[in-house]
Design brief:
Helix content: 25-40%
Largest sheet: 8 strands, parallel
Strand content: 5-15%
Distance between the termini: 111 Å
Structural class: alpha/beta
Strand order of the largest sheet: 1-2-3-4-5-6-7-8
Radius of gyration: 28 Å
Shape: globular
Number of helices: 13
Order of helices and strands: HHEHHEHEEHEHHEHHEHEHH
């Protein structure tokens, strides 16, 4: 019987089994940064929404109380948020001394415009206060319902080149008067948006308190999606955007609750963790309203403002929530800079 020979071992197998295999070593350049071949330029890594900030901030709605109370002992706030200039909202038209005090206490802060409250329901005012050659004046006008006097007053204001902040009152929105009456008012003042809207008027109209609009926080997001008020908001936002000289102001919502504390402003870890749940809920709701507004008005006709009329709110918290909500919609740096800076500069600088 022929001898049965053991299978032949391929050359080199034994050698490979002797001891651990020596692995190749990566050069230190692999850990020191992107390669110099331009790969990082062709395939850039997207920034996280939580770390994306506007290049500069022009705050289009800062209340006098916020500056006095919130900024009095916080000189770093202007630098931290890159605030270049502000539109100062006055509670009355007799605050020349207060404006002078702010100019003196914050010399690096430019007041782009002073927002003066007027009641155009009574027709054009006899006099509009001024605050120096370098500070423009814009008008804050409440809106509850359309009227001939209000139409006359708005035509007068725009004819004078004023920027008008039209503050849509909560009572009007709850009664359903706001959307239909607002569109009717704009049509009478500006002409039909569908036929080009080219009246012989200057200035601009900025709608406040509709982005986000007043809202019942007890309504779940699932129910809100099909709620009549939300469907009306989507349709009417599209209609209002047909007027090219109309903008919307991105302000803290009047939701009968203070703006949630964010991690950047809370000193208590447990409070911060608990509040973050509320913050996430707010961002979900805000994005539901922000999305249709961005689609209708574009990034070029939305302006950011920080002051809230709800007690207990902090403008820093709103800045964080507003910024993150916008960037989480997939907005690029250019759009973020427009909403938080460029747009306000363009519209209020001509006031």
């Amino acid at each position: 019987m022929a001898d049965i020979l053991p299978p032949l071992t391929p050359p080199g197998v034994g050698a490979r089994r002797k001891g651990p295999k020596t692995l190749p070593r990566l050069p230190m350049s692999a850990f020191s940064g992107p390669p110099s071949s331009g790969t990082s330029e062709r395939f850039p890594i997207s920034q996280s929404p939580s770390t994306t900030h506007p290049t500069i901030v022009i705050d289009s709605h800062v209340s006098l109380d916020d500056v006095h109370n919130g900024w009095k002992n916080d000189a770093g706030r202007i630098t931290l948020r890159k605030i270049k200039s502000v539109v100062l909202a006055l509670p009355s038209d007799s605050q020349q001394a207060a404006v002078d005090q702010i100019v003196q206490s914050h010399p690096s802060l430019k007041i782009l415009s002073v927002l003066v409250p007027v009641n155009l329901e009574q027709g054009p005012p006899a006099e509009i206060p001024t605050f120096g050659a370098n500070i423009a004046v814009s008008l804050s006008v409440p809106f509850v319902k359309n009227s001939p006097k209000l139409v006359e007053g708005l035509k007068w204001a725009l004819g004078k080149g004023y920027v008008v902040d039209l503050d849509v009152q909560t009572a009007a929105q709850e009664s359903g008067e706001s959307w239909g009456g607002l569109e009717e008012l704009l049509s009478e003042v500006l002409g039909s948006g569908e036929d080009g809207n080219k009246p012989a008027l200057g200035g601009a109209i900025i709608l406040s308190n509709i982005l986000p609009p007043p809202h019942d926080l007890d309504i779940s997001i699932v129910k809100l999606l099909n709620h009549p008020t939300y469907r009306a908001y989507q349709a009417d936002t599209a209609s209002l955007s047909l007027f090219p000289s109309v903008y919307v102001k991105y302000l803290p919502p009047r939701w009968n609750a203070p703006t949630p504390v964010t991690s950047g402003t809370s000193n208590n870890e447990s409070e911060s963790a608990e509040d973050s749940k509320e913050k996430k809920e707010w961002k979900r709701r805000i994005k539901m309203y922000l999305g249709p507004a961005v689609e209708a008005f574009g990034f070029q006709r939305i302006v950011y403002g920080s002051s809230s009329s709800v007690p207990g709110s902090d403008s820093d918290d709103w800045y964080e929530i507003a910024r993150e909500s916008l960037t989480e919609l997939g907005v690029e740096q250019e759009g973020l800079d427009a909403v938080f800076g460029t747009n306000a500069s363009l519209v209020y600088a001509g006031a």
